[in-house]
């Protein structure tokens, strides 16, 4: 069958035409072949333009095109010479330049004439004036209080109906974990919860309207609308989706993105509940991070997003332990940072009790008897985490000294090896040890009991006598051993700026205890005062302003916004940091999250001054240290003038009861 039978080509009177296209004349003797037809072949691919539909060639085989460059047709005459019309130029017709015709006035007039009518102008002068005319502001109709109240009531009525339906459906599905839902059912559930989120959004916009009265604005708080939105509109459904994984993965991703966009919108439009929206955004980011198992990069991105929101929330509510618990989960696999956040979540004024269970996910691998490779920790970190795990869980208590000594034996060489990187690890270790001395926030801790007892006495409340305070427990004695021995190793490192953050944290804790003499007595007799005094005298050698140290005020740079050092953010919110920082010390909101823990060279001098001021305040309290203002030197009381390494009292021989330790006051 020929190509003509398919209707692809048609030849009529020497014209080759594709159906539906323009006819193309075959190249004549003076024409070049069409573009893309090298060698002078016709469109049919048959040399010489033969009939493609001849009976002798029912199934013509197209000839392959030559790879040689296009050639000029042989039929065309080669006329390239002086007589070629293409090279002939006529005599130019013109006239000589006349100065009168090229005067400035003539040129200006012609220029104005040409510019007054720009080429391609599509608007008349009237249209241009209309386009430049200013429009008045659209009229807005004020809404009355009655209309606003009616609007809020109507929205709330619809919200209640959708909310009750969501609660009913979520409870029904949660009790039927074996039931598998198809895509249409999941989409219906997502649409139902999306409707509830939209109803909440409308309620917040109406109740927080600028024209709303204070009573109307208080409705959202009165009826706990932000918490209800999170609980019934988002969290319960996310938990339902989580328990149906992996089959519900795609639907869970869809709903997380939906809820995240809604919370981001509320964060921008309803600032009255900004703290709640920030924490909800962090929770949604953590859900998204937790279900990402395939792409490690996406997991890290959502971990960073969630950490950003939780850090922002902790800045606004530094005494809320729940936020530090969430940050501890995101800190994996950094074991020291995890231990720091878990400990902090239990040692703030509003502790998070659930952290006592979560922290065991960090301790169990270390207490399980596995080697360092199984816990994915270097030996010194594994020993430190295990020692805290023993104190917290009261498991393997007989092995505590062995594990603690392993950590202490590796510490000095470890600091020398990692140098500047130990600055961050140093204040993590210091804060964790201080929290261990407080028994991780337990009320039965001897220091906490003595602090509360003294506070009650100041308030005129009668409490039991000092003899009624229980004796220190085994975990407190172990924490005291670990903390004091760590102090000795660190304080004995002279001329090392990398241990200054650790020293700063320890002195903040000791200054806090000086306000409670009976509590300080529990640690004063074992504290390495002599190495500390030598460390302080070393820092005094670079001091130029002794009056600033003796002023008793918090040292800060003048004419500059506050710039806290990294450990300030780590200490913020802890129970033993009360009254240390000025009220506006963390008011600089221009510091990004990444900049908070960025170490600058100028911070070394800031830390030295802080440590010297803390040492002077402790000396002024008459506990442990002394200060000679004439010689500007630190010293210790006679009972602490001893070689710490050789003559220090062993913790087993130290007095443990509160009555006997008062002799050191």
Automatic annotation (TrEMBL):
Q: What are its GO cellular component terms? A: telomerase holoenzyme complex
> Record's Pfam families?
EST1_DNA_bind (PF10373)
Q: Where is the composition biased (Gly residues)?
A: 37-51
Task: Tell me which residues make up the DNA/RNA-binding domain.
Answer: 307-577
According to the UniProt record, where is the region Disordered? 1-128
Q: Which domain of life is it from?
A: Eukaryota
**Compositional bias per record (Low complexity), positions renumbered to this chain:** 102-118
One GO biological process this protein is involved in is: nuclear-transcribed mRNA catabolic process, nonsense-mediated decay
Under InterPro entries, the record lists: DNA/RNA-bd_Est1-type (IPR018834), Est1/Ebs1-like (IPR045153), TPR-like_helical_dom_sf (IPR011990)
Question: Can you provide one Gene Ontology molecular function annotated for this UniProt record?
Answer: telomeric DNA binding
State the name under which the record lists this protein.
Answer: DNA/RNA-binding domain-containing protein
């Amino acid at each position: 069958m020929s190509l003509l039978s398919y209707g692809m080509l048609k030849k009529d009177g020497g014209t080759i035409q594709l159906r539906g296209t323009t006819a193309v004349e075959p190249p004549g003797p003076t024409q070049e072949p069409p573009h893309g037809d090298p060698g002078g072949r016709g469109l049919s691919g048959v040399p010489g333009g033969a009939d493609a539909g001849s009976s002798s060639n029912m199934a013509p085989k197209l000839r392959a095109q030559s790879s040689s460059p296009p050639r000029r047709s042989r039929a065309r005459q080669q006329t390239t010479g002086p007589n070629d019309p293409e090279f002939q130029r006529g005599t130019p017709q013109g006239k000589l330049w006349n100065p009168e015709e090229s005067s400035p006035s003539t040129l200006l007039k012609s220029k104005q004439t040409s510019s007054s009518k720009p080429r391609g102008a599509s608007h008349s002068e009237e249209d241009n004036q209309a386009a430049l005319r200013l429009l008045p502001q659209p009229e807005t109709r004020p809404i009355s209080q009655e209309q606003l109240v009616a609007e809020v009531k109507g929205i709330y009525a619809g919200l209640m109906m959708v909310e009750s339906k969501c609660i009913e459906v979520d409870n029904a599905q949660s009790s039927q974990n074996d039931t598998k839902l198809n895509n249409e059912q999941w989409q219906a559930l997502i649409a139902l919860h999306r409707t509830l989120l939209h109803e909440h959004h409308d309620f917040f916009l109406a109740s927080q309207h600028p024209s709303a009265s204070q009573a109307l604005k208080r409705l959202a708080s009165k009826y706990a609308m932000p918490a209800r939105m999170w609980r019934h509109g988002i969290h319960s459904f996310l938990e339902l989706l989580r328990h149906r994984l992996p089959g519900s993965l795609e639907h869970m991703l869809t709903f997380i993105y939906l809820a995240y966009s809604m919370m981001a919108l509320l964060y921008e439009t309803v600032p009255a509940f900004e703290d709640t929206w920030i924490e909800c955004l962090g929770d949604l980011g953590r859900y998204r991070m937790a279900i990402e198992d395939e792409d490690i990069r996406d997991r890290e991105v959502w971990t960073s997003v969630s950490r950003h929101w939780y850090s922002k929330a902790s800045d606004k509510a530094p005494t809320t332990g729940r936020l530090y618990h969430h940050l501890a989960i995101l800190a994996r696999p950094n074991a020291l940072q995890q231990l720091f956040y878990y400990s902090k979540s239990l040692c703030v004024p509003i502790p998070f009790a659930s952290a006592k269970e979560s922290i065991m996910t960090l301790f169990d691998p270390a207490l399980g008897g596995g080697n360092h490779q199984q816990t994915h920790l270097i030996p010194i970190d594994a020993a430190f985490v295990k020692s805290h795990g023993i104190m917290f869980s009261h498991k393997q208590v007989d092995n505590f000294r062995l594990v603690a000594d392993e950590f202490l034996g590796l510490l000095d060489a470890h600091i020398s090896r990692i140098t500047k990187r130990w600055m961050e690890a140093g204040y993590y270790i210091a804060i964790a040890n201080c929290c261990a001395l407080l028994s991780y926030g337990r009320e039965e801790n001897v220091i906490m009991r003595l602090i509360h007892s003294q506070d009650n006495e100041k308030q005129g409340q009668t409490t039991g006598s000092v003899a009624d305070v229980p004796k220190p427990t085994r975990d407190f004695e172990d924490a005291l051993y670990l903390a004091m021995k760590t102090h000795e190793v660190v304080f004995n490192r002279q001329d090392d700026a990398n241990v200054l953050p650790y020293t700063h944290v320890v002195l903040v804790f000791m200054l806090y205890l000086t306000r409670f003499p009976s509590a300080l007595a529990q640690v004063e007799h074992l504290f390495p005062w002599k190495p500390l005094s030598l460390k302080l005298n070393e820092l005094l050698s670079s001091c130029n302003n002794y009056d600033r140290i003796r002023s008793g005020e918090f040292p800060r740079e003048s004419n500059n916004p506050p710039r806290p050092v990294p450990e300030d953010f780590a200490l913020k919110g802890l129970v033993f940091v009360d009254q240390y920082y000025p009220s506006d010390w963390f008011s600089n909101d221009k510091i990004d999250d990444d900049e908070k823990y960025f170490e600058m060279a100028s911070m070394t001098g800031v830390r030295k001054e802080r440590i010297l001021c803390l040492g002077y305040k402790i000396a002024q309290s008459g506990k442990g240290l002394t200060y000679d203002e004439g010689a500007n030197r630190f010293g210790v009381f006679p009972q602490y003038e001893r070689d710490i390494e050789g003559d220090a009292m062993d913790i087993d021989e130290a007095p443990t009861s509160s009555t006997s330790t008062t002799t050191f006051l």
